[in-house]
Amino acid sequence: METATTEIRDRVQVLERDIAAKRKELQELLNESARGEVADYELIDGDGRRVHLSDLFGDKEDLLVIHNMGAACPFCTLWADGFNGIVPHIESRAAFVVVSPDAPEAQKQFAASRNWTFRMYSGAGSDFSQEMGYSFEKNGQVYQLPGVSAFHKRTDGTIIRTGRDSFGPGDVYSGIWYLFALLDNGVGNWEPQYSYR
Prior knowledge:
By secondary structure, the protein is an alpha+beta fold.
């Protein structure tokens, strides 16, 4: 029994190292593919005012933008619910905002219903999400995709996109998948809901 346990532990350690190395390699490639100067896109704040991407940095040099599909997506709601608790930690290092295609008033109402504390902006009418690769049009229908973009603002005001990643079930951006994986049947057929009452 001890030999089998030792063998499993050794295999686990090898796999953990391999996965960590592959994850690092993947992130480096994603960042390399995303890197480049971007326009100072216009978005809409919660009061309906037009703001620029450069305004979202505040006093930080770096900015994380969550590309959220909006209130119609329970998966995006799950991710946003999770970010709510870690925003103070994130904002100690970088500015953090969530951008969705929803209208500002709809965003405000939905955020209030979820007790979200982070800043939200509407990308309605902007090419921002599309040009970042999180929105596309097919057969006259606009589709949104979830993910994250990282930006750096240089001292001359130039904005550089420094990284990107996509969101999806089982990703590293919501720890719930890893917790469920410990259960007898893993994630099973579970999917997020707006409420479990």
